[in-house]
């Protein structure tokens, strides 16, 4: 997702365009990887020294709720990335060393649903973790 598209989506939902939101989106632009919230805070504080961890988290979760960012947990810590431009339902391989991702264009839920007859599945998340070719 491009930064202007993300800002337009926020505007359409009634959120103001702020320098802080612009800077947060800039951090994610051109990154094909998940970034830890603490690393976002460090980078963010270079331009906004007084910003609190709560402000960072509040904006990260706002952007996630509006499907501008995707979130996952790596090593017991929340990581975020811009939502990918891949259209439709998909999943990711996530490198545990560098955080880069690769889209997986199929969904294993068809097999899982066969084993859950009678269960009402509301949602799911499927991620594969390991080392990418560059980190192997």
TrEMBL record:
Binds 1 zinc ion per subunit. Binds 1 Mn(2+) or Fe(2+) ion per subunit. Its cofactor is Zn(2+); Mn(2+); Fe(2+). Fe cation binds at residues 89, 124. GO terms for biological process: negative regulation of DNA-templated transcription; regulation of secondary metabolite biosynthetic process. Keywords: Cytoplasm, DNA-binding, Iron, Metal-binding, Repressor, Transcription, Transcription regulation, Zinc. It comes from the Bacteria. It is found in: Cytoplasm. GO terms for cellular component: cytoplasm. GO terms for molecular function: DNA-binding transcription factor activity; transcription cis-regulatory region binding; zinc ion binding. Zn(2+) binds at residues 95, 98, 132, 135. Belongs to the Fur family. This is Transcriptional repressor. It comes from Halobacillus salinus.
């Amino acid at each position: 997702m491009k930064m202007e598209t993300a800002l337009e989506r926020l505007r359409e939902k009634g959120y103001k365009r702020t320098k802080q939101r612009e800077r947060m989106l800039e951090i994610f632009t051109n990154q094909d990887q998940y970034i830890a919230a603490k690393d976002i805070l460090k980078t963010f504080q270079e331009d906004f020294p007084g910003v609190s961890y709560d402000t960072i988290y509040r904006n990260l979760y706002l952007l996630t709720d509006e499907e501008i960012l995707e979130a996952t947990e790596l090593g017991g810590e929340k990581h975020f990335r811009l939502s990918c431009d891949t259209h439709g339902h998909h999943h990711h391989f996530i490198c545990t060393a560098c955080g880069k991702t690769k889209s997986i264009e199929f969904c294993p839920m068809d097999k899982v649903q066969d084993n859950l007859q009678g269960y009402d599945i509301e949602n799911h998340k499927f991620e594969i973790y390991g080392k990418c070719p560059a980190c192997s």
